[in-house]
Design brief:
Length: 84
């Protein structure tokens, strides 16, 4: 077993799945394109989409931000109705 493989195994045991997914999402987020053109860009985009899907389904990643935005919009709508 080479050193790189051993290090990956060690990291796998130390970091939780959630931590590894966040780390990979952050790494891919630096260069993934919204509209990929080449095969490698497409593969990177699919990987990023898959990681985001897992984070959303399993950990409800980013849901609080979306819910806060919805609540804020509901509040603004109520204020507009009261002003009329």
């Amino acid at each position: 077993m080479d050193r790189v493989h051993a290090l990956r195994l060690l990291i796998g045991f130390v970091m939780s799945l959630y931590s590894r997914l966040l780390k990979e999402k952050k790494r891919l987020g630096k260069f993934v394109l919204r509209a990929p053109r080449t095969t490698q860009e497409l593969l990177d985009r699919r990987r990023w989409d898959r990681i985001m899907a897992i984070l959303l389904r399993r950990y409800e990643f980013g849901m609080e931000d979306a819910l806060d935005a919805m609540r804020r919009q509901d509040h603004l709508d109520e204020v507009k109705q009261l002003r009329r």
